[in-house]
Amino acid sequence: MEAVAKLNNVPTSARKMRMVADMIRGQRVNRALNILKFESKEGAARLEKLLLSAIANWQSKNEDERLEDADLFIKSITVDGGRMLKRLRPAPQGRAHRIRKRSNHVTLVIASKNEAAVTADVVEEVINETENN
C-alpha cells in the first residue's frame, strides 16, 4: 500500500529543494528521517515534516499493520517549480532589475517493501501461467 503527501508553495527554489530530495530518494524511512534531522540545509526541516505526514497517512490507511513490520521506503519524491513572485529592485541610472522569488511543490510517495515483493511474485506467477498455457 502506498501513501502520498504533498507540500505546495514552499518559498525556496526548486533547485535547492532537489538537492535535499536527492539525498533521501529510495532510502528506507528511518534512514531518511535521520539524514533529514542532521542536514543543515533549509529544505531538510520541511521535508522531514512532510515525510512524517506521509508516514501518518500510511498508518491511517493501514490501521491493522504495524509500522515496524511494514519496512517502508521512499518510492518517489518529485520537486516541481511553483508560483513565482516577481518584484522590482531599483538599479543605477533610473533603471529597475527584476527579482524572481521562486517557490516549489514537493510530492512524496512511500510504500512498503513487503508489499512490493508480494506484487512482484504475483506478476511472476501470472507470466508463468500464460507461458504454460
TrEMBL record:
A GO term, aspect molecular function: rRNA binding
Function: The globular domain of the protein is located near the polypeptide exit tunnel on the outside of the subunit, while an extended beta-hairpin is found that lines the wall of the exit tunnel in the center of the 70S ribosome.
Keyword Ribonucleoprotein: yes
GO biological process: translation
Stretches of the chain forming a coiled coil according to its record: none
Family of this protein: Belongs to the universal ribosomal protein uL22 family.
InterPro entries: Ribosomal_uL22 (IPR001063), Ribosomal_uL22_bac/chlpt-type (IPR005727), Ribosomal_uL22_bac/org-type (IPR047867), Ribosomal_uL22_sf (IPR036394)
Gene assigned in the entry: rplV
Keywords (A to Z) from UniProt: Ribonucleoprotein, Ribosomal protein, RNA-binding, rRNA-binding
The protein, known as: Large ribosomal subunit protein uL22
